[in-house]
Amino acid sequence: MTKGKPSPGQKCGVVKGSVATALSAVLMCQPVLASSGQPDRTVLPIRPEPFAGVIGDTIEKSKPSWPAPVTAPSGAPNVLLVMTDDVGFGASSAFGGPVPTPNLARVANTGLRYTNFHTTGVCLPTRAALLTGRNHHAVGAGQLADTATGFPGYNSAIPKSAATIGRVLTGNGYATAFYGKHHNVPAQETSAAGPFDHWPTGLGFEHFLGFIGGDTHQFSPHIYRNTRRVDEDTATAHHVDKAMADDAISWIRNVKSAKPDKPVFLYLATGAGHAPYHAPPEWLARFRGKFDHGWDAMREETLGRQKAAGIVPKGTKLPARPDEIPAWVSLSEGMKRVNARFMEAFAAHVSYQDAQFGRLVDELERMGQLDNTLIVFLQGDNGGTAQNGARPSENEIGSAANSQDESEEQFLSRLDLVGGPETYGVVSAGWGFAMNTPMPWFKHVASHLGATRNGLVVAWPDRIAAHGELRHNFAHVTDIMPTILAAAGVSAPASVDGIDQQRTDGASLVATFTDAKAATRDTQYFELDGNRAIYHRGWIASTSPDHMPWQRSHRADSHLPEWRELYDLRKDPSQSVNLASRYPEKLKELEALWDREARANNVYPLDVRPNIVRTLSDPSGPRVKNMRPSATFWGKGVSVIESAAPPVGADSFSVTASFSTEEADTTGVLLAGGSKFGGWSFYLKDGRPIAFLAASQLPQDQFRIAADTRLGAGKHEVTFAFQRKGGPLSGGTITIAVDGQQVAQGRAEKLLNVLAGLGETWDVGRDTGVRVSEEAVAGEFPGEIDRVRMMLTGAPSRTGAPQ
C-alpha cells in the first residue's frame, strides 16, 4: 500500500496530494455515499440496493441480480485495540516506568506515544467511553455496575442510542472479536437468564471470549465464550493472558484464511495490572529484589527517565506524597519485604501480558498483515490503584468486603506464595501512587491526573511515518472510537437498528498522526464519587478529595468535595502548584464550565454515599428488587452468580440437597459457592456430609464441620443449617441433618459478607473456578442430584458486592 494515500471510498476537505490528506483532519473525512456508487454507511444495517435484474414470466426472460455483500471500505486497516487494567502513567517502561514492556515499546518506536491522554479514573466508565465514543455519564456509566443507581447517568446500561465500535465496524464489513474483561454488564443481567443485550455479543461483537465483571483468578478463571460458560478444564490450560492470545491468534488465522481481504477488529481488554496479580513462576523470579528500594525512590527514578525521554517537560516537579501514604523509610523491615514482593508480582503480571501482546504483533507480521494494521494501545483504564490503603492484601475481596486484616507475621509466612494461584493480591497505595508518577493521587480520585492520565501508543506502519515521536496533544478515551472510524473510512452512523444515535463526544485524532501541532478538543470534564475536574485550554480546575478510595464508609460529616485547586498544565503538568488563590476568578469560570458540561452529560445528581448504601438504599432498584429469600437449583451442572441467589452474606440460612448415590463412600460436591478466598462448600467425603466455610484463605479462618457416619447408598436429603450468633461476621453454628436426623454440629468463629473472588458462582455437583475446599473433588458429583434448595432463615442484611 502506498504511504500517505487516502483509503478509497473517502473524500477529504484538504488539499489533494498532501501528506495530511492521507489521514484526514479532525471530523473532515466522510465516506463517499451512494451517489458515488458506494453504500450509505450513516444508517446501519446498510440498506441493500434495489433489485437491478429482470423478473420475467420464465427464467429465460429473467436476469438475476445478487445483493451486494456488505464490505469495509477498500483498503480499510485491520485494528488491534488493547487496554490494560489499573496501570498508571508511570508504570510501564514505554512511559518511563520501572515495569519492562519491551513489546509495547517496540510498537511505540514504529508509531507514536501520546503523553497527554486521559481516561475517566475508574474501570467501567472508561470502558463505556472507549466502546461508544461518548462521555461515561452520557451512556449511564457514571459508576460501577455493582453500585448503579436509578438515574440516567448511573444505571450502568449502555443505551442502544450509543452503538459501540464493535456494532459499527461489524455493520461495515469488519470481522470483530472481543477478548478479556467486560465490566459493562448491569449486575442484574450477568446471570444465565440474561438478557444479554449488554454482553459483548449483544453490543455488536461477533465473537467474545473472556470474563464478566471486575476481575477473575488468572489461573482458575470464570470464562465465557459468547454468553455460555466455558468448562474450566478447556477454557484455559494456563494463564488467562496466554489463553486469550492463543485464541485471538487462532481467530485471526481463521478469518484471514477464509477471506484475506476482510479487515479484522480485535479488542483485547486484558486484566493485567488489576488484582489478582498472577504470573508464571519464572516470570515472578525475574523481579526478585527489583523494588527493594521502595516507592519514594521509584518515583524519583521514574521522573528522571520521563524527563530524559521528553515524556514530561524538564521542569516537571513531583507532587508531595499524601499524608495518608507512609514514607518507605517508616516501614518495618518486614513490611518493606512484603510490599516489595507485591510490587514484584504486579510487575511480573504486566510484563507477562506484554509478552502475549508481542505474540499477537508477531503473528500479524508473520501473516503479512502488520503494515496495514492500526494498533491502538491504552496502557491502563485509569491510574494505579490505592483501593487497599496503606497495606497490601493477598485477598482483594477479603480485605475490601470481608474485614480481613493480615498481620505482618502472616504476610511473611506466606511471602513466597505472592503472585501465584494461592493468593489474590493487590498492592498498597504507596505503589499505586508511585506508578502514577509524576501525577498526583490515584484511581477513583478523578479530580486529579493520577486517576485520569494514562499512556497511549498508536502505530500504523502503512500510514504513520513519524516513528517513535511523541504527541503532547490533549486526548481523551472518547476520542478512540472516532479515530478508528476515521482511519477505516467509516462514518459514525446517524441510525443503528432503527434507533437514532446520540451525539459522539470524542473527536478523531487522525490529524495528529502526521501533525504534532494538530488541534484537538480543548474541553473535557471529569467526575467520580463527587470528585470533579474540568480541563479547558491548558488549565485544569479540581475539587479537593474528601475521602480515600480505601475507606469503606464515609464520615458522618462527609460532604461534596469543594473546588479549591487550579493548575496551569502548560507550565505545571503534574499539578504541583495550586494557583486557586492567585486566580480565583479563573477557578469560578471553570467551575461554571464544569456545571454546564455536567448538565449536558447526565452527571447530576452527585453522590458521595458509601457504595453499600448507594447500592441498597433504593428498594425499587434491580439489585434489591431481585433479591430473593429462597432458590431451587435444579440438578448438576447448574451455576448461579451470587446476585441471582439468596443474599446469604453473613445471615442465617439453610441448604437442603436431595440426591442419590450408588456407593456408601461417595465423595463429591453438592453445592459450593465462592472460593478458598471466601466461600462455602457442602459436600460428601467418603460418604460423610461436610460443611466447609472459608472466611478467608488463611487456615485460622477456615472451619470444617463433618458427620461421623456414612450415609450409605440410596436416596437422601441432607440439610446444612447455619445460625448466626452475635453481630455481623462474628460467627455462628452449623448443623447437619440427614433425612431429618441431626448428625453433626459445630461453630464457625468468623463469617464473610460476600463470596470471593469476583465472578465466582454457586455450583451444583461441582466447584468451578477456585475451589473452596481442596478436600472436595473437582469433578462432577458421582451420583444424581435432584435439586438443592437454599433459603434464608433470618432477616437478610442485604450486604452488597464491593466495588
CATH superfamily of the largest domain: Alkaline Phosphatase, subunit A
Please give the share of residues in helix: 10-25%
Which CATH-level-2 architecture of the largest domain?
A: 3-Layer(aba) Sandwich
Nearest-angstrom radius of gyration? 27 Å
Structure, explained:
With 803 residues, the chain is an alpha+beta fold. The protein folds into two domains: 85-290 and 300-392 and 427-584, Alkaline Phosphatase, subunit A (3-Layer(aba) Sandwich), CATH 3.40.720; 627-792, Jelly Rolls. 20% of the residues lie in helices and 22% in strands. It is built from 16 helices and 32 strands. Strands 4, 5, 6, 7, 8, 9, 10, 11, 12, 13 and 14 form an eleven-stranded mixed sheet that branches. A six-stranded antiparallel sheet has the order 21-32-23-28-29-30, with no helix packed on it. Strands 22-31-24-25-26-27 form a six-stranded antiparallel sheet, with no helix packed on it. Strand 24 and strand 25 (678-685) form a beta hairpin. Helix 5 (240-258) packs parallel to helix 8 (333-366). The two termini are 47 Å apart.
Summarize the model shown.
The chain has 803 residues and is of the alpha+beta class. Helix content is 20%, strand content 22%.
List the helices and strands and how they pair.
Blueprint: E1 10-12, E2 29-31, E3 43-44, E4 78-83, H1 102-108, E5 112-118, H2 123-132, H3 165-170, E6 175-182, E7 207-212, E8 224-225, E9 228-229, H4 232-235, H5 240-258, E10 264-269, H6 281-285, H7 295-309, H8 333-366, E11 373-379, H9 396-401, H10 408-413, H11 429-434, H12 449-452, E12 453-459, E13 469-471, E14 475-476, H13 480-488, E15 495-496, E16 499-500, E17 523-528, E18 531-536, E19 539-543, E20 563-568, H14 584-600, H15 611-616, H16 622-625, E21 630-633, E22 639-641, E23 653-661, E24 668-675, E25 678-685, E26 688-694, E27 702-706, E28 714-724, E29 732-738, E30 741-748, E31 761-764, E32 784-792
Parallel strand pairs: 3-15, 4-10, 4-11, 5-13, 5-14, 6-7, 6-10
Antiparallel strand pairs: 1-2, 5-12, 7-8, 8-9, 11-12, 15-16, 17-18, 18-19, 19-20, 21-32, 22-31, 23-28, 23-32, 24-25, 24-31, 25-26, 26-27, 28-29, 29-30
Helix pairs in contact: 5-8
